[in-house]
Structures are given as C-alpha cells and as structure tokens.
Design brief:
single chain; 190 residues; mainly beta; Pnp Oxidase, Chain A; 7-stranded antiparallel sheet; 3-stranded antiparallel sheet; 36% strand; globular; binds flavin mononucleotide
C-alpha cells in the first residue's frame, strides 16, 4: 500500500551521484561546488544538466563565463566534498583554503580537479529558469577518466567508488555487486 509521503519530496530521489562543478569567476578566481542534482540529458549533442541555485557563487561565475569542468570525485573525498558545499567562494578562495590541486583543461579555460576519477570539460548549451534554480545544460567537449579506473562501461567499482549523496553529511557507496535482469521478458507484453 502506498501512503502520502510527509518528507521533502526530493528525498525519495536520493541518494544521488555527486559531482563537483568547477567554474571561473569575475576577477579570475576558480570556484568549486558539489552538485548532486545532475544528470546526462542527450547523447547528440552530448549534454549534462546541473541544477544550480541562483544564490550560489557558482551561479554568478557561470553567468560570468559559461564554461565549467564537471568532476567526478572519489568516495574517499567526502570530507572535501562536504566542506566545499558548506562554504561559498563569495567569501573564501576554496582552492587555497582547502588545498585542492587543480590542473589545466584543454577545451575550456576552467581547470579541473587533479584527483578526480573522471572529468568533463563543458560549456553552457542552454539553460532553464526554474524557481530559485537555473538548470544549466552543458555540452560535453571532452571526457577524461583516470587511467585504469574506467572501461567502456564506466567506472570500475571494484577499483574506485563514487559518493552518492544521501542528506546532509551522509553519503553512500555504490554496492559493486551486480544484479542482472532476465535477458528475455517472462511476462506477456500484450
Ligand atoms: C553533497 C552536496 C550536494 C549539493 N548539490 C547541490 C546542487 O545540486 N545544486 C546546488 O545549487 N547546490 C548544491 N549543494 C549546495 C552547494 O554546494 C553549496 O551551496 C555551496 O556552498 C555553493 O558554493 P558557492 O557559493 O561557492 O558556489 C550541494 C551541497 C552538497 C554538500
């Protein structure tokens, strides 16, 4: 039996894979923010959407320069992720404050996180204004993955795990055990 859910609606869509959006801000400062409201959108063109609250400095930076890198961190970096999401680049330089190593990108002028498992170099393709948020649709210009940690099916979870954001300080690992669906459907399709 389904009953009315009394919690905040989006809780039932968590835990979610968390990325770190790196942007370049007015004055040239680099900024970083974790974002778990993200998703691939289309294959042609290759796009990824991220919901960015208009109150964040990242939003200001993306409006200033419509380029970014989308970094897939390791679960080992949850402390860093949480801290990046608990302060604003408006007040501090997160790169120096947290000692994050950045590396230059090729297709965008925004650097990426040197220790990321995977990196997308992206530019803004389009955006949708929704309430307190701008949904940025980014076109992927270049995709990088750490050597040995990914194959054609994605990140090798037996070698590296990624953070799924639950709520607040809580993150979950991806269970690397696989569950295979039946090859042929057993039920009648009509
Ligand atoms: C795990 C995690 C996921 C988050 N996901 C989002 C998100 O998808 N969109 C968003 O606007 N803020 C998200 N936040 C909040 C921002 O990261 C936070 O407001 C951050 O301080 C903004 O930094 P900035 O002002 O330097 O851009 C998230 C925070 C955490 C810790």
């Amino acid at each position: 039996m389904l009953v009315e859910y009394r919690g905040t609606f989006y809780r039932l869509l968590h835990p979610r894979p968390t990325v770190i959006v790196v942007s370049k801000c007015p004055g040239g400062k680099t900024n970083m923010m974790p974002a778990s409201w993200n998703t691939p959108v289309s294959e042609e063109p290759p796009t990824i959407a991220v919901a960015v609250d208009k109150s964040t400095y990242t939003w200001t930076c993306l409006e200033h320069l419509p380029e970014a890198t989308i970094n897939v961190p390791s679960i080992d970096d949850v402390d860093l992720i949480y801290r990046l999401g608990s302060m604003s680049g408006r007040d501090v330089d997160k790169t120096t404050e947290l000692g994050v190593e950045l590396a230059p990108s090729e297709r965008v002028s925004v650097p990426h996180m040197a220790r990321a498992i995977a990196v997308y170099e992206v530019r803004v393709h389009s955006k949708v204004d929704v309430g307190e948020v701008t949904l940025y649709v980014f076109e992927v210009l270049r995709t990088l993955a750490r050597n040995g940690l990914a194959d054609e099916w994605g990140i090798d979870l037996s070698k590296a795990n990624i953070p799924l954001h639950g709520a607040g300080r809580v993150f979950h690992r991806v269970d690397p055990r696989k569950v295979y669906a039946q090859k042929r459907q057993r039920y009648a399709t009509g």
